[in-house]
Amino acid sequence: MQGMSERQYAAHVGLSRGAIQKAKTAERLVLYLDGSINAAASDARRAETTDPSKTRKPPAPKLKPVPEAAVAAVGDTLREQGLAVPAVGGGTTFLQAKTANEVLKAQERRIRLQKLKGELIERARALALVFRLAREERDAWVNWPARAAALMAAELSASFSDTTGQQITVEPAAMQKVLEKHVRAHLDELAEVRPDFR
Fold first, then answer.
1. Quick check: helix, strand or coil at residue 3?
2. What is the distance between the alpha carbons of residues 59 and 82, in angstroms, rounded to a whole number?
3. What is the C-alpha separation between 63 and 65, in angstroms, rounded?
4. 149: burial class by Cβ within 10 Å (0-12, 13-18, 19+)?
């Protein structure tokens, strides 16, 4: 066999065997004496006799654009692991994206394992716990002046005297008001602190 078979030529030009048989019947292919196809001459004849408007172009692969956030996430993951990060606008290679994917899968598995071991808790649960503890701490401080005022007033009354040597008496109710004022001012300052759980 000097040239290609119908099947070989079909694979060579990217057409079906039936299309090659039709082209052979229409004498659009150049054949050797043994009936095999002369590939170079047949390509030239097909190019001359084929109407470009009637040729089917293979459909272009439909590639979805990769969101910038995904590309940035790949860069962040690689950077966190101390690996090479693509230059800005330089594009991410498949290998870099695959490496980032494997790193993220490993991190996800580690987190899942930590949850199973009880080393991690859910964010909502942690927020509720912190809120409850902060509320209990605040309530303890709000109630503290009422408990401590009488003791502090007694201690101050026992240790202070005026210039004439007479003992100064501190009223527990007045002491409680002063303490409450200062404790509430301090709690208001603390309320402005907003923890960031990101």
1. coil
2. 40
3. 6
4. buried
Tokens representing 34 are: 């043994």
The token pair at 82 is 């101390």
Residue with tokens 């004849």: 45
Q: Which residue has the tokens 């002063």?
A: 178
- Between these two residues, 152 and 167, which has the higher pLDDT value? 152
How many residues are present in the chain? 198
Report DSSP letters for 45-95, one per residue: HHHHHS-GGGPPPPPPP-PPPPPHHHHHHHHHHHHHTT---PPTTS---HH
pTM above 0.85, yes or no: no
Helix runs in the chain, H state only: 6-13, 17-25, 39-49, 68-80, 94-117, 123-159, 172-191
